[in-house]
Amino acid sequence: MEKRDYSKIVRELKDKGYTLSMARIAILRYVMKENAHYTAEEIYKNLKEEYPTLSIATVYNTLKLLSKEGYLQQIMIDPNKVIYDSTLGIHPHFYCKVCGKIEDINSDIKIQLNKEINGNRVEEAHIYVYGVCKDCLKKQKSKRESLSLN
Ligand SMILES: [Zn+2]
Ligand SMILES: [Zn+2]
Fold first, then answer.
1. 63 and 40 in contact (C-beta within 8 Å)?
2. Helices (DSSP H) in the chain: which residue ranges?
3. What domains are there in the chain, each with its CATH number?
4. How far apart are CA 107 and CA 54, in angstroms?
5. What is the pTM (predicted TM-score) of this model?
6. Is there a contact between 85 and 64 (Cβ–Cβ < 8 Å)?
7. Which ligand is closest in space to the CA of residue 136?
8. Helix, strand or coil for residue 121?
9. From CA 19, how far away is CA 65, in angstroms rounded?
10. What is the pLDDT of residues 94-114, one digit of tens each?
11. 108: CA distance to ligand 1 center in Å?
């Protein structure tokens, strides 16, 4: 996955006429990390200490703005929350049903946008894979092992 240059995005947004406060730049920088999948609440919690004046509304507004301008995509893998992803383009996501962790996975599934499938034009596609992540599998395994020892 490509690394995103947040200072370039800051420049582009300023060129478009947006005013970017320190808090907004901090959110941008945070969310553009590699392989990052965050909810607004997670970003807020993580930045609150460094930016005590930060409000959750600012986080929401900034994420909305970045999505609108095409720097983030929204992942709806978990019906209870919206997750923001700085990796653009169609890529499959894995969701752990035990701990709720989300990660990008490699897969052979290939869907191209703006191509026709059976005469229908594809404009958007999401590939969500659900299961138990490797960390949770390991935990389950060691739990089983310790149980069978007793
Ligand atoms: Zn897990
Ligand atoms: Zn992703």
1. yes
2. 6-15, 22-31, 40-47, 56-68, 134-149
3. 1-73 (1.10.10.10), 89-150 (3.30.1490.190)
4. 38
5. 0.80
6. no
7. 1
8. strand
9. 12
10. 999 999 999 998 877 676 777
11. 23
CA 100 to mean position of chain CA atoms = 13
Q: How many CB atoms lie within 10 A of CB 10?
A: 16
72 SS3 class: coil
Taking the centre of ligand 2 as the mean of its atom positions, its distance from the CA of residue 9, in whole angstroms, is 19
Least distant ligand from the CA of 84: 2
Question: 73 alpha carbon to ligand 2 midpoint, in Å?
Answer: 9
Residues with CB under 5 A from ligand 2 (ion): 85, 87, 104
CB count in 10 Å sphere of residue 39: 18
Q: Six-digit token pair at 26?
A: 């901090």
Ligand 1 centre and the CA of 77: distance in Å?
14
Which tokens is 130 given? 């659900």
- ∠ Cα 9 95 138 (to 5°): 120
Instruction: State the burial class of residue 64 (Cβ atoms within 10 Å of its Cβ: 0-12, 13-18, 19+).
Output: middle
Q: Quickly state the pLDDT bin for 1 (edges 50, 70, 90).
A: very low
What is the DSSP secondary-structure string of 74-106? EE-SSTT--EEES--S---EEEETTT--EEE--
